[in-house]
Design a protein that fits this description.
Length: 100
């Protein structure tokens, strides 16, 4: 079963291919994704790496957590499910229609 890791503190220039290449030192990487801001197109400084097996994912945590990557200290841990967040209304700077 695949295990997904959260990677935080990435250099903003990091792209998917670089992330996958770096983490492939720990084992077979199924996917690597750097999260990008939709509005600016820039990296948000974090991403996710998915490994084919749990042993490789655990090895990656051990190898990379707290290490330097491009001048920044990254943190690596098992990804948690995304939490439910309240919907944001972007109309009129966050005000609901008719409340201004």
């Amino acid at each position: 079963m695949a295990k997904r890791l959260y990677v935080g503190g990435l250099p903003y220039a990091t792209r998917d291919a670089e992330l996958k290449e770096a983490f492939s030192e720990a084992g077979e990487v199924a996917s690597a994704t750097v999260i990008m801001d939709r509005a600016s197109g820039r990296s948000k400084g974090f991403g996710f790496v998915e490994f084919e097996n749990d042993a490789d994912a655990d090895k990656a945590i051990e190898m990379f957590d707290g290490k330097d990557m491009g001048g920044r200290t990254i943190n690596v841990n098992e990804a948690r499910p995304m939490e439910e967040r309240p919907r944001r209304d972007n109309d009129r700077g966050g005000y609901s229609r008719g409340n201004w």
